[in-house]
């Protein structure tokens, strides 16, 4: 994962994210990430995208996931080490029911996703980005967990 840290331009790191709040910059960053060999996982009405920054965030995820399962249902959980490495983990949760973007942001925050990321997602939405939630996944990185956690 260290090799990815050295190759990632600031535009697709957390430091550069604040500069990508407008639709044109958001799209340009997506294209740059794809050119650098990342899959760009875009959110949609039944996909939660979480950025878990540490073990405490993962613990929040594990603790609160049962509530999401009972209310929305969970089809699949896909997790991988984020481009930041260390304890940072990205998680995609496929819901059985649709949720609005505002519901998704609230659920993601309740599940332990990086609060700054979720605030910036709301700002992007306000600024006209149609689908403001996304994660970068290095190509070829295996999932750490697949299928619903029982």
Count every beta strand, where a strand is a DSSP E run of 2 or more residues. Answer: 6
H/E topology pattern: HHHEEHEEHHEE
Order of strands, widest sheet: 2-4-3-6
Provide the number of structural domains.
1
Average pLDDT, rounded to a whole number, is 83
The whole-angstrom Rg is: 15 Å
SS summary, helix count? 6
Largest sheet: 4 strands, antiparallel
Kindly state the percentage of residues in helix: 40-55%
> In terms of per-residue confidence, which ranges show pLDDT below 50 for 5 or more consecutive residues?
1-6, 146-150
Category by helix and strand content:
alpha+beta
Please give the alpha-carbon distance between the first and last residues. Answer: 29 Å
Strand content: 15-25%
Shape: globular
Short key terms for the protein model shown above:
4-stranded antiparallel beta sheet, two-stranded antiparallel sheet, 150 residues, 6 strands, alpha+beta
Describe this structure in words.
The protein contains 6 helices and 6 strands, in the order αααββαββααββ. Helices cover 42% and strands 22% of the residues. It starts with a helix and ends with a strand. It is of the alpha+beta class and 150 residues long.
Summed up:
With 150 residues, this protein is an alpha+beta fold. The chain contains six helices and six strands, in the order H-H-H-E-E-H-E-E-H-H-E-E.
């Amino acid at each position: 994962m260290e090799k990815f840290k050295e190759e990632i331009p600031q535009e697709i790191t957390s430091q550069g994210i604040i500069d990508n709040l407008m639709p044109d910059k958001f799209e340009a960053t997506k294209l740059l990430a794809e050119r650098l060999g990342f899959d760009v996982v875009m959110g949609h009405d039944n996909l939660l995208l979480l950025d878990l920054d540490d073990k405490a965030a993962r613990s929040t995820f594990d603790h609160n996931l049962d509530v999401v399962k009972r209310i929305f249902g969970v089809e699949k959980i896909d997790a991988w080490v984020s481009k930041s490495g260390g304890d940072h983990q990205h998680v995609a949760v496929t819901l059985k029911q649709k949720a609005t973007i505002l519901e998704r942001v609230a659920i993601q925050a309740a599940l332990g996703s990086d609060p700054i990321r979720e605030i910036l997602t709301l700002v992007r939405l306000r600024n006209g980005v149609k689908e403001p939630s996304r994660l970068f996944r290095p190509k070829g990185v295996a999932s750490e967990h697949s299928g619903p956690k029982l």
